[in-house]
Amino acid sequence: MGTAEVATLSTERIMELAAESARSMASLAGLFALLAGELDRREGWRSEGATSIEAWMVERLGLSVPTARAFGHVGVRLYDLPCLASAMSAGDLSFDKVRAVVDGATPETDRELSDLARECSVVELTQLARSRKANPVAATRDTRSLRFNDIFQTVTAQFPAESYAEVRTVLEAEAKQLPSDGSTPWDQRLCDAFVGLVRSATRPRNANSRYTVVVHAPLEVLLDEESELPGELERHGLISAHTVRRVACDATVILAADDNVGHTMYEGRAYRYPTPTQRREIMRRDRHCRFPGCTNVTFVNPHHIKWWRPHQGTTDLPNLALLCEHHHHLVHSKAWTLTGDANQELTFVGPSGRVMTSRPSPLWTSVSVRSAPGTPQPRGHRRG
Questions:
Q1: Looking at residue 137, what is its pLDDT?
Q2: ∠ Cα 94 99 101 (to 5°)
Q3: What was the pLDDT predicted at 136?
Q4: pLDDT score, position 237
Q5: Domain boundaries, the chain
Q6: What percent of the chain has pLDDT above 70?
Q7: Phi, psi (deg, nearest 5) at residue 53
Q8: Phi/psi at 15 (nearest 5 deg)?
Q9: pLDDT value at position 38?
Q10: Which is it for the CA torsion 267, 273, 277, 280, positive or negative?
Q11: pTM of the model
Q12: Which residue, among 358, 260, 263, has the nearest Cα to 305 in the 3D structure?
């Protein structure tokens, strides 16, 4: 059914179809969660080089990390909760409702929560689940976390109750002290207060510059105020020429010399280990482990695709790719093969024979690649 057909339906029919579709979606979500849970129990994802069920779903199924994490977690929990599992698979309960109660559910409360979920909203179920925790403060303390999302440039944090109250009180007090013309939304003032506290805590003593940032941009942007060439704020995406110049005024400027297609210098066989500048460029190009579906960005190191020994591999960007410790071990175990040009496309082949490919970050391609023979051009990028 296309948009033209939907537009001809009555409002009543649209509501009926929406309800039917939601029920079907819930049923499929239930089946999918159960399949994910069983695959995780078997650790079947290991056969394709994944580090977890979430990583496998990201690569194989094209899901986002949060979505994959949610389905994997719910699937595992449903193994001992047949009533909730059956209700969702039958389309009686939405995935959101089951997700709200699954952590607090036990085999003894499974049927009770399944019946309750049919009557309550997601918000009510969430509140009920929180109230049933034996020690909510201790539980919150155990799950304290702070995560950065480089794609959406967001920070998500969970605090113990006392820490949450402290953080909120301090940020609100700081936000109230910020000058405002009355039109700045409250959430933006809170954000400004948060950034202000971070900058004040990290400001170096006896230094003119308040903080250091890394921006990759043509030198022309700094020398020519009319230039409109974009730059890239390291690990945070494209920025306009105007933003490049504004950042350069307030921060320390670090210059890196690139060749005519935007690639940092080559070392050949002169050195085995990448230079600090090469490591920075590799991180900029790959963002995280290059194994398909792996988002590990913390424990990663450059790996020679054509090994330094015994294959005489060079210490050049095309021959260096970021791999996490787990996938580095898989490649060196010789059960997996890694071939290709890290600046263009890498090919991973495992024991199952499945072929997976990995390409550089499109942001790196958009900013770094210039018109050069044999160099793949960025797709879908508009300058300006």
A1: 44
A2: 105
A3: 44
A4: 66
A5: 3-132, 145-202, 207-255, 276-368
A6: 76
A7: -65, -35
A8: -65, -40
A9: 93
A10: positive
A11: 0.61
A12: 358
Q: Does the N-terminal peptide bond of residue 218 adopt cis geometry, omega within 30 degrees of 0?
A: no
**CA–CA dist 353, 345 (Å, integer):** 18
- Tell the residue number behind the tokens 């308040």, with chain if given: 210
Ranges in the chain, pLDDT < 50? 134-140, 206-211, 257, 260-264, 267, 269, 369-384
The pLDDT value recorded for residue 375 is: 40
8 A C-beta contact, residue 252 and residue 212: yes
Q: How far apart are CA 315 and CA 300, in angstroms?
A: 17
Query: Do 294 and 51 contact (CB within 8 A), yes or no?
Result: yes
Q: How far is CA 12 from the centre of its chain?
A: 40
Q: Over the chain, what HEC string results?
A: CCHHHHHCCCHHHHHHHHHHHHHHHHHHHHHHHHHHHHHHHHCHHHHHCCCCHHHHHHHHHCCCHHHHHHHHHHHHHHHHCHHHHHHHHCCCCCHHHHHHHCCCCCCCCHHHHHHHHHHCCHHHHHHHHHHCCCCHHHHHHHCCEEEEECCCCEEEEECCHHHHHHHHHHHHHHHHHCCCCCCCCHHHHHHHHHHHHHHHHHCCCCCCCCCECCEECCHHHHHCCCCCCCEEECCCEEECHHHHHHHHHHCECCCCCECCCCCECCCCCCCCCCCHHHHHHHHHHHCCCCCCCCCCCCCEEEEECCCCCCCCCCCCHHHEEEEEHHHHHHHHCCCCEEEEECCCEEEEECCCCCEEEECCCHHHHHHHCCCCCCCCCCCCCCCC
**CA distances for 250 relative to 52, 201, 261, angstroms:** 42, 17, 28
